[in-house]
Each structure stands twice: as C-alpha cells, then as structure tokens.
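Protein 1 of 2
SEQ + STRUCT:
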Amino acid sequence: MRAPFEFRSDIQYDVAGFGTNAVDYLIRVSEYPSFNSKVELTDWQILPGGEVASTLVALQRLGFVTAYAGHFGADEAGKLGLRSLIDEGVNVDYAGIAKNASTQVAFIIVDARTGERTILWKRDADLSYSAADAPLDLARTAKILHMTPHDTAASIVMAEAARQAGTIVSLDIDNTFDEVETLLGLTDIMIASSDLLERLTGIRDKLSAMTEVASRYGCTIIGVTLGDKGSQLLCEGVFIDTPACKVPGGCADTTGAGDAFRAGFLYGLLSGFDVEESARCANAVAALKCRDIGARRALPDLDALRTFLG
C-alpha cells in the first residue's frame, strides 16, 4: 500500500534529527557473565552512537541530506561524537556544546555467541533542551523531523512547528515520559521497541496494542521492531508483517539495529516506495548494520543496500 504522505519538495533537508547522541564503550565477551562472576573480555572499543545521530548517519550514507540538533558534552567524548557526524556529512549547525555536561555514555556488553547486547547508559541532565531552547527553524526546514522523546517538552514544540510547516514527524520511542501522550498526538510515524506498546496501552497483543495507539493518538504509521523476528506495522488499518533478513556472515552486534531499521524505513518512504517495500528496506539496513560491532560501522551505502536487496 502507498504511504499516505506528501513530502515537501522546496526545503533544505530530507531529514532533520532532534534528540540523542552518545559515545558507546563496547565490550565483547565470549558469553554473557552470570551474577558475581569474572569473565575475561574478548575486546573493547569506543565508538560513536546514539539513536537519532546514528539514524541520520545511516540516511546520509543512503544519499539523503540531513541535519542534527542536539547537545554534546564539553569533553573528549563530545568531540568524538560531533566529529563523527561532520565526517559523515551530517549538518551540525544546530548542534551545541553543553559547557557543564558530559556526553551521554553507554557501556554495552555484547555476547559474541549471538551478537545480542546489554546496555548501561547515562545521560547528563545538562544535555537537555527546554521548550524555549528548541530549534524550531530546523523543524520547519525538512521533509521529515525524526526525534527521540527524552526532552519531551522541547519535542512537543518541535513537532508542533513541524506540523504547521507541513513536515512529517517521526518518533523513535522505547520508553514512556511525562507528556509523551501529547507528543504522540503530534506524531505521524511511530516506531517503538518490542515491549513499549504493552507498557503504553496495557495490551499484550501487539496488533491490538497498535490498533489502540492509532485510535488514541492518530499516528498514521505505527511499527514495532522484533529483532530476529522482523517487524510489524499498522498503516490505515492494514497490518504488515515483514520477516527479518539474515545477517551476512552472522550477527556480530545488535547495537543500533533499531536505529538502522528506522533509517531504512524512512529511506523507503522518501524514495517513493510503498509501505511493504519500505519495511523490507528497514529490515535489510538493520541486518547489514549487524555485520560488525557498534551502531554505525557496518551501516550500508546505497550500492550495498541495493546489492543486498537484489
């Protein structure tokens, strides 16, 4: 089915991002440690990550023009994170340095047997945006505004400005926050983690939960990522199940797979594909990301994605 969106054509960016960036400390172990044990790690690396920042990098590699708004800390990790976006070609004119803050950090334990990861993270409160600080001009200058809801009040005014300008609002959500229901009422595309819908609605069955979200908030496309089981989407009353793609060479690390999925889905929609083909692209980009450790290292360019999809 065709996505019921009309994208603006006379603007600067394909996708603007507002939300999280991070630096990830990735620790690979031969098997996940049991409680009160000692396990020798296989290797460890420091790599840039963060949901919105990584999604924009993926879209940039797929040929789109992107811009990022978010705060980095005034530390070496912040320099690494900011430089990583610049090197990929993401516009960072709306990004800033929070002078008294440390960059968001994640310590990620990756089980080498399966590539599954466990994340321990911390976000400094001084990285936050208030509604008064939100870069509304950015929300008005893109086809799609893609956000995480961590600074919910700021995200709400960003979504309002985007809607008024005709920009499509996309939300990456894996937790509930104060006022998140107001933000969901301003969201066109909502892609959630596998357990979020039940926490949000109290409904265990995912299809029923998606139907309830559509009824409550009016989101046009609602989706849930299901790891190696693929994804499920609801668009205008039609459910779309898409199987996961096999990771070439086996799964090295699932860190950032959800960010990659969202990038692949937005790539499909912006390319004029129908919702089913966009979901297939989403699963493909996520699978290709999982070839190597970290949220971004194995993100494909357009040629690699097209080759993989055949």
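Protein 2 of 2
SEQ + STRUCT:
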Amino acid sequence: MSKKGYVQKELKDALDILEEYPTSTVFLIPARLDDCTPSDDRIRDLHWVDLFEDWEVGIDRILKTIVDSAP
C-alpha cells in the first residue's frame, strides 16, 4: 500500500470496514500473487492465500473458506 491510487483506496476502505466485524467473520480474503511481504500491519496480521506458489491449491482454499463461512 505504498502507492496511491484507486486500488489502494479500496483496500484501505475494506480494512476500515473489517474492524467493524468480529474476528471470526470472513469479510476479506487477501491473496498474494507474488512472493512479497505486505507493507501494512493490518494485512500482515491476516491469514492470506498464496496464489503464486500453487494457483489451484490457493483457489481451492478460497472456495472452501467462502463455502464454510456461508450462513
């Protein structure tokens, strides 16, 4: 989030909204597309899905999380 632009604004807004939800609620699923370390502490503290190592495993994890968290 060291750049300034529309994507960074959306991410900031999503992180601000995330603070309103209980920690057990799935609201945001961060996905890493490259081998990097997030610069924002709020993202670093979240669990994320790595898509750069194994795309299929990452997508499966995202889909399982969505299905498991559905009401």
